[in-house]
Amino acid sequence: MDTRFTPEQDEIRRTLRALLHDRCGPRELRAAADTATGHDPALWAALAGRLGLPGLALPERHGGVGCSVTELALACEETGRVLAPSPLLATAVLAAPLIAALGTPGQCAEVLPRLASGALTATLAVPGPSLATALALTGGNGGDWAGGGRAGGVQARRAGTGWRLYGEADQVLDGHGAALLLVAAHTGGFARSRTLLFLVPGDAPGVVRARRTALDATRPQGRVQLRDVTAALLGGEDGGAVLAALARVGDTAAAALACEAVGAADRALALTVEHVGRREQFGRPIGSFQAVKHRLADVYVAVQAARSAAYYAAWAGAHGERAGALALAQALEALRTAAGEAVQFHGGIGFTWEHEAHLYFKRAAGDALLFGPAHRLRAHAADAARLFDAREVAV
């Protein structure tokens, strides 16, 4: 493994960091999060038009840049550093790879170029708080998370030569504003029970959407209700292929999320170091106290260790290996530690609405709820590796 970044990767990071520094400061971040969509369309247009970010990991034949998951993960590190609210995660990390993996040639040709250009946004809609389960991050995704043939979730039924969907998906990333919904629905009844993916335009008749109040306002979520909606099946009816594709995308998404969390943790630490260098007690900066140095040194070590794990997971994802879940677990813990210490060391202003520190703390808590928590990510990875298989342990 060559741990050095290529000149192209360095340029992506440098250019994106400069753009976000100019266009996504604390004031712009709050203004974007308070809009109906939860993000700034002008910033999204700049990310798509100037940098080609939505199509970074899509092949050139579909209008993408042709880079790998590694470059996309490095871009997520920079967006995570400033907590930039954008459709990048839902569109480029979750929806686009699934469409590329499962879609028919016609579907790919119709949808992927528009996703790559940023003209179309998309998201993966799964019922309830089941995103981590659907992506096989905290357990196997072969269960009844999509509905299981019972009331609740999203159900699909045949209607002539097409399909119709009925049900509700809650806590959908950008679900209130995405132009295209990639809906996971249960079909087949008891005898042929399986989960399939369907394409649904966000403005289709019978689709009712609303933005939810989320813990992390920089990660907007929506509720999607499907009231007998006409849908197009993505690819074929092989439920096993769908679950396998979700698991593969889950691992690469975990690597991107790990890099994003590392960027946020690094920024939270930088804010804290800057503050303790200015704030004085007993006639000297509190950053000069040994106890403060020790605590921030521990945070620095945690962030650097998480960065190494996240970079490896991004590299592994581009080479057909899977290490995303473990990297995400370490990154989430590093972000929680860095954000918690930021609130503590900023003292009375650390938890006020006007300061940035609470935004990073909420990102740490919100991501743990959506994609974790860390102990479940590690437990599933251990089960997959059969670390604690009784048959493998000598008594």
From TrEMBL:
Organism domain of life: Bacteria
Positions of the Acyl-CoA dehydrogenase/oxidase N-terminal domain: 6-118
Swiss-Prot/TrEMBL cofactor(s): FAD
InterPro entries: Acyl-CoA_Oxase/DH_mid-dom_sf, AcylCo_DH-like_C, AcylCo_DH/oxidase_C, AcylCoA_DH/ox_N, AcylCoA_DH/ox_N_sf, AcylCoA_DH/oxidase_NM_dom_sf
Domain called Acyl-CoA dehydrogenase/oxidase C-terminal: residue spans: 255-382
Gene Ontology terms for molecular function: acyl-CoA dehydrogenase activity; flavin adenine dinucleotide binding
Gene3D superfamilies: Acyl-CoA dehydrogenase/oxidase, N-terminal domain, Butyryl-CoA Dehydrogenase, subunit A, domain 2, Butyryl-CoA Dehydrogenase, subunit A, domain 3
Key words of the record: FAD, Flavoprotein, Oxidoreductase
Pfam families for the chain: Acyl-CoA_dh_1 (PF00441), Acyl-CoA_dh_N (PF02771)
Family statement: Belongs to the acyl-CoA dehydrogenase family.
Name of this chain's protein: Acyl-CoA dehydrogenase
Source species of the chain: Streptomyces zinciresistens K42
